[in-house]
Design goal:
disordered N terminus, mainly alpha, 199 residues
Length: 199
């Protein structure tokens, strides 16, 4: 019986996990053009530049809540010394990558900032109203009723004040996140340092 020309292809290797700088990255090759046809072990030096850029972008996003310097110092600086390929990618593409991550982060923060701002305005207005009611409420004839009434108004004013403080804290936190990201959009930005003269 004549043999067909079909040859079974080896199954793609499982995704490889690399631990660098305390973070785990799973690199998945889903395109046939990215598979190693010679069945050689894939190393970080053979990873395409686009994937390395995506990995670095994930690292930059990871710690932005704690400040941009934290993201670079804890994750990027150790990772760029993992191999010459990573160092070359970071050296030649760092400014463009920082700008890209900043735009992505600002796109996430903008709707959140709008919601937090509206909440802050509502809670501030509610607090002012409760404060005015407490100060301008007419006295009652019965001292016992007056005491209970004032106590209830004071409790409502305190709750309104606590809501306002929570909203103000959220507003400050979002503002700090935006402040931390914006320097990455400046061409004069230096690693772990902002060139204020050019921002």
């Amino acid at each position: 019986m004549e043999k067909s020309g079909f040859k079974p292809q080896p199954a793609p290797r499982a995704a490889q996990t690399s631990e660098v700088g305390g973070s785990s990255f799973i690199v998945r090759f889903t395109s046939l053009s990215m598979l190693d046809t010679n069945d050689k072990p894939t190393t970080i030096d053979t990873i395409p530049v686009e994937i390395l850029l995506d990995i670095i972008a994930v690292l930059l996003h990871e710690e932005l809540d704690d400040g941009n310097d934290t993201a670079i110092r804890i994750h990027i600086l150790p990772f760029r010394h993992a191999c010459p390929a990573v160092l070359r990618v970071w050296t030649f593409h760092s400014k463009a990558l920082l700008h890209r991550v900043a735009l992505e982060r600002l796109a996430i923060l903008k709707p959140r900032a709008l919601v937090v701002r509206r909440t802050l305005v509502r809670t501030m207005f509610r607090r002012v109203v409760r404060r005015a009611v407490l100060k301008l409420a007419p006295p009652l004839g019965d001292p016992a009723d007056e005491r209970d009434y004032r106590k209830r108004l004071a409790s409502q004013e305190m709750f309104a004040f606590n809501d306002y403080c929570d909203a103000a804290w959220d507003f400050m936190r979002v503002g700090d996140q935006i402040f931390n990201v914006k320097p990455w959009m400046s061409p004069g930005y230096r690693l772990c340092q902002v060139d204020w003269a050019s921002t």
